[in-house]
Design brief:
By secondary structure, the protein is an alpha/beta fold. The chain is built from eight helices and eight strands. The strands form three sheets. It has a three-stranded parallel β-sheet, covered by helices on one side. A three-stranded parallel β-sheet has the order 6-7-8, covered by helices on one side. The chain is elongated. It starts with a helix and ends in a 5-residue tail after the last strand.
């Protein structure tokens, strides 16, 4: 999901410079909501829907850009027709029509992706902010305790334990934010409820929201 959201800034730069481009995004079905309502994307193609994937065999694009480099992304990029663009460090370079230089590994991911787009002809130097649309219907379901108030969302979960900060750290940050007059909202994905509860123990009277969509 992080990779999906980090792509929105560079794509916004691409769309601003070339507004006539129609941009399709191929994404896992569980993350397609990251682009829901985003006007920079003309089409969201879901990997999870077999019919959508099969239709790629009949599609022709002016360019097919593989930003991931793994075997799955290569497989899907080979399904559609059109010139294929990858990065020079990818495996099977002969399967690509062009190879962009490897981005600097020390810069932020969004800025690194923008550097690839600059190779395509984008001229801006700084990556625009990430872009994801608000949804008024979903906003109406928020608890009354935070409506009309300034609040901060803390999502302490992570796919891997090695990527997860400890509950005391989250609790300390939340307490400092509360002292600045901000409400604290904790969110969790499936299976993360226990860890969020540990964080909540350190933040009295906080709001916890389970079962949210992206």
């Amino acid at each position: 999901m992080g990779d999906c959201l980090l792509l929105t800034g560079p794509v916004h730069a691409l769309k601003q410079e070339f507004p006539g481009f129609r941009i399709s995004i191929l994404v896992e079905d569980r993350f397609r909501e990251c682009y829901d309502g985003n006007p920079d994307f003309s089409e969201i193609i879901s990997i999870g829907h077999k019919a959508e994937a099969v239709r790629l065999l009949l599609r022709r694009f002016h360019a097919i850009i593989n930003l991931h480099g793994g075997p799955t992304s290569l497989f899907y990029s080979l399904m559609a027709w059109g010139p294929r663009i990858g990065l020079e460090q990818y495996q099977y370079p002969k399967l690509y029509s062009g190879l962009a230089p490897k981005p600097d590994s020390t810069i932020h991911t969004a800025q690194a992706t923008l550097s690839i787009f600059k190779w395509f002809g984008v001229s801006v130097s700084n990556c625009p902010p990430l872009r994801y649309e608000t949804h008024s219907a979903a906003a109406e379901t928020l608890p009354e305790s935070i409506k009309g108030k300034d609040y901060v969302v803390i999502h302490p979960g992570a796919l891997l334990d090695t990527k997860r900060w400890d509950s005391a750290g989250f609790g300390s940050v939340a307490q400092q934010l509360r002292r600045r007059g901000l409400q604290i909202v904790l969110t969790a994905g499936p299976g993360e409820e226990h860890f969020v509860a540990k964080v909540a123990e350190r933040i009295p009277a906080t709001t916890i929201l389970f079962g949210l969509t992206i």
